[in-house]
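Entry 14. Structure prediction run on the chain below.
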Amino acid sequence: MRLDKFLKVSRIIKRRPVAKTVVDGGKAKINGKVAKAGTVVKPGDILELEYYDKYFKFEIVEVPEGNVPKEKSNDLIKVLDSRGIEVDLSSDKEILE
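Output returned:
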């Protein structure tokens, strides 16, 4: 399954066009390598994702054939890490003034 579709099906990101934009913006890695929206995911892959001001690290446990019920979407991934990202705006003083 494509990464952008997996993000939607697993409900990590609710809409596929948003998932594609995030991934194509270089904000997703599979097993440490920057991924594209069309990258195929498989069980055991480690997915790292920067989304807004958050960082997530997931292990892909299961890749479904199609859509899954909302109640089962949590069974597709295992959260390994989740934290906020610090944004340093001190170098952007001119922009902020």
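Helices lie at 3-9, 16-27, 93-96.
Filed with the rest of this week's runs.
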